Amino acid sequence: CVFEMKADGTSARQVTCGKAGARQPVYQSTVYTITPTNVEPWVQVAFVGANPGERNEAGVAPNTSLWSCKTDGTALRRLTFNLSNDRDPVVLPDGRMIYAGWLRHSGDHGPNGRVPLLGVNLDGTDYQVYAGDEGRRVKQMPAPTASGLVVFVEADEIAGDGSGRLASVSQRRPLHSHRPITGEADGLFHSPSGLPDGRVLVSWRPADGSGSHGVYRLDPATGAREKAFDDPAWHDVQAKLLAPRPVPDARSSVVRDDDPEGKLFA
User: Fold this and answer.
1) Other residues' Cβ atoms within 10 Å of the Cβ of residue 36
2) Which of 46, 69, 140, 232 has the highest CB neighbour count under 10 A?
3) For 3, what's the count of Cα atoms within 13 Å in the CB-facing half-sphere?
4) Predicted structure pTM score
């Protein structure tokens, strides 16, 4: 389930458990819908939720999608309808979400499919590929940076812990700006997240898989890293800066849950 609490760990309260579990929550941008009776904006969270009764395309695990709800748990809505496992949502400065999603086949990637980065509006509209065939077959854990990049982990296969090398694309031209940040000998990376100076917090361990992940500060421009924290008894992953943050651009929505009809673009 998703919980919200104060920065000091107090006042924890449940937001939602989704329809069948909820993981990887992120705050969305402010949402507003102007009607004759309502002009008040509200805040939502998005999360990865299992879809009751659904298995992924291979039939080997529950299928997951992106879901959203208000911070009081109401207005629960499924946003994505991929055949196999969407995950790792993040919100860009313009309020749009990107995430990792399994797709069956593209180009020369073979029958095993690929995991590109996909983009969608906060209400589930305007679904499209954000960073696809350039680079390695599996792209996960995207993180927008203050310098206008999206940094992510990529690999040829889906590793047990999801680690791989780091790469990036520009937020302005994501389909035509892929650039590897690290190489094979630079180690295994996991869960990058942005810092105000354009660097990222990222978990790292040696390329041979020995030792545990520690948290480092890394410069995407040069690949240089410095240790921030490492407890050798544990894997230290998913580090986030605890500090004030800019609120992404607000978004309006024309999606109506009470309307049974819509337009399909193919």
Assistant:
1) 5
2) 46
3) 9
4) 0.91
- Residue pair 115/170 in contact by the 8 Å Cβ criterion: no
* 128-139 tens-digit pLDDT: 999 988 999 999
Distance CA 231, CA 3 (A): 26
Nearest-CA neighbor of 29 among 41, 38, 37, 18?
Answer: 41
Q: Is residue 118 within 8 Å of residue 98, measured between CB atoms?
A: yes
DSSP string, 36-57: TTB---B-EEEEEEEEEEEE-T
Task: For residues 219 and 174, give the distance between their C-alpha atoms in angstroms, rounded to a whole number.
Answer: 19
Looking at beta carbons, which pairs linking 209-213 to residues 24 or more positions away fall under 8 Å?
212/236, 213/163, 213/188, 213/237
Please give the backbone phi and psi of residue 185, each rounded to the nearest 5 degrees, phi first.
Answer: -80, -5
CA 247 to chain CA centroid, Å, is: 17
Q: Provide CB contacts within 8 A for 250, sequence distance 6+.
A: 29, 30, 31, 32, 41, 95
Q: What end-to-end distance do the CA atoms of the chain give, in Å? A: 35
State the Cα–Cα distance between residues 100 and 90, nearest whole angstrom.
Answer: 10
